[in-house]
């Protein structure tokens, strides 16, 4: 995890490509520049051992020292294999490919490099294989010449640059006097490859001879077989056009001759730049245009040399940078400390004065603390005052009638007498008046009570309970109580 974290900081963006170099067994071709202005150059060689010399000559001639170049392997320098697609992630697949194709190549998995992509049939994987020795030889030759190999791809893949994205096309191409190569693409993706042997150079000559017609008929037959096979696989988008790019041939005349023999359109491949006259130049230009976007890169990340960060020079530079940083931080703190020194002295003086004042206030506070004995005496006095206030309140609430007697109450009660009521007992207090007696009939008691409103003193009296019943002699008895007795419901 730590390694991935540091890798996110140390990873650089992919550099832009300045040129592309295509390696063949008989030539080395370079294309330099942009789409609008390109330069094409090549050097013929006798064998692949002359690659370093040819690369150095081209790099020096076109001033590509220090440039980032794309390398394209020509036909015969790699193997193309079709295998079942394994259930692996992309990272695992990159490491597992050499072992997945070990039974299909002559070299050990440790001696080969491989890369691939999914075919249009999702269960198949198109793989391209080269030897690690050959790849190391190419990388070393580029470094020796003063340039850097940024990516390594193959000829079969870069031909897709000349095809359309929304259709299926078959490219018939030949480098020099080699064999014819058939490469089919569907939606800009490689789908089919085949090599045709036994067809002379050139396929068309000025004189229309029987031998030429027979050769063209044989070629058309082989092409039709390939078309039928590919179209059977691509039912939704069959091959609709053939593109011709053959060295040492009149491509337009060859396209016309094949048009007469096939049921699909045949056209000569028209390069985007007039200087791309040869198949090798077109392959090199296509490799430059695709660059890092190519579907195949045999020079993958895990094969590239790891940059050594922990070197003596890097350590010395790190120590120097750390020393400068520490010195800078220390200087900043020292400068800031000198600026704050007067303020610190002033604050310390203020703190000392505040502490002195606090001590004086604390001494004064001790002089004003009340003793516990005094606090207890005050509590006792407060309780006595509360008791006396309660007594005064009771005296104040005492019925004023106790001071003048109950004569007026009895006088008004006598005035309210009724022939139907006989009073046996009267109990008068400050809180109320209770009356017990007998009545001639039960209704006489309420009528008698209603007359109390005529007398001022009796009107002030309130009764909470009226009881009317009969005694043993069937006499009506009543009881008026100012407040209910305890235990009476």
From TrEMBL:
Entry's InterPro entries?
ATPase_NBD (IPR043129)
Q: What is this protein called?
A: MSHA biogenesis protein MshI
What is the protein's species of origin? Photobacterium aquimaris
């Amino acid at each position: 995890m730590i390694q991935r974290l540091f890798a996110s900081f140390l990873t650089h963006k992919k550099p832009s490509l300045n040129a592309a170099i295509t390696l063949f067994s008989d030539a080395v071709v370079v294309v330099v520049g942009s789409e609008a202005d390109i330069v094409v150059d090549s050097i013929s060689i006798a064998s692949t051992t002359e690659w370093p010399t040819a690369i150095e000559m081209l790099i020096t001639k076109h001033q590509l020292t220090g440039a980032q170049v794309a390398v394209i392997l020509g036909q015969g320098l790699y193997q193309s294999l079709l295998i079942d697609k394994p259930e692996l992630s992309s990272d695992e697949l990159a490491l597992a490919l050499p072992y997945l194709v070990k039974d299909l190549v002559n070299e050990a998995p440790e001696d080969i490099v491989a890369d691939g992509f999914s075919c249009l049939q999702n269960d198949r994987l198109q793989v391209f294989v080269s030897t690690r020795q050959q790849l190391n030889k190419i990388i070393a030759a580029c470094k020796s010449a003063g340039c850097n190999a940024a990516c390594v791809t193959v000829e079969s893949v870069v031909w897709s640059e000349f095809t359309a994205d929304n259709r299926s096309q078959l490219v018939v191409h030949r480098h020099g006097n080699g064999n014819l190569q058939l490469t089919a693409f569907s939606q800009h993706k490689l789908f089919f490859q085949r090599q045709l042997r036994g067809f002379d150079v050139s396929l068309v000559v000025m004189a229309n001879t029987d031998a030429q017609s027979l050769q063209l008929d044989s070629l058309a037959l082989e092409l039709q077989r390939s078309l039928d096979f590919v179209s059977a696989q691509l039912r939704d988008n069959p091959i609709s056009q053939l593109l011709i790019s053959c060295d040492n041939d009149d491509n337009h005349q060859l396209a016309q001759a094949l048009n007469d023999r096939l049921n699909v359109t045949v056209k000569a491949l028209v390069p985007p730049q007039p200087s791309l006259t040869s198949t090798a130049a077109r392959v090199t230009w296509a490799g430059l245009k695709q660059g890092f976007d190519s579907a195949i890169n045999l020079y993958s990340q895990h094969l590239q040399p790891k940059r050594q960060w922990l070197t003596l020079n890097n350590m010395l530079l790190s120590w120097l940078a750390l020393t400068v940083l520490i010195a800078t931080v220390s200087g900043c703190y020292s400068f800031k400390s000198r600026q704050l020194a007067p303020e610190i002295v002033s604050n310390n003086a203020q703190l000392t004065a505040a502490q002195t004042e606090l001590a004086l206030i604390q001494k004064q506070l001790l002089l004003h603390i009340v003793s516990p004995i005094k606090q207890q005496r005050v509590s006792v006095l407060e309780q006595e005052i509360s008791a006396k206030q309660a007594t005064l309140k009771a005296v104040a609430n005492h019925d004023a009638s106790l001071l003048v007697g109950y004569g007026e109450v009895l006088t008004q009660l006598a005035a309210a007498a009724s022939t139907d009521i006989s009073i046996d007992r009267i109990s008068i207090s400050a809180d109320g008046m209770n009356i017990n007696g007998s009545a001639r009939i039960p209704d006489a008691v309420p009528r008698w009570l209603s007359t109390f409103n005529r007398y001022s003193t009796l009107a002030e009296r309130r009764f909470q309970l009226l009881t009317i019943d009969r005694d043993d002699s069937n006499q009506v008895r009543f009881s008026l109580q100012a407040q209910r007795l305890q235990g009476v419901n």
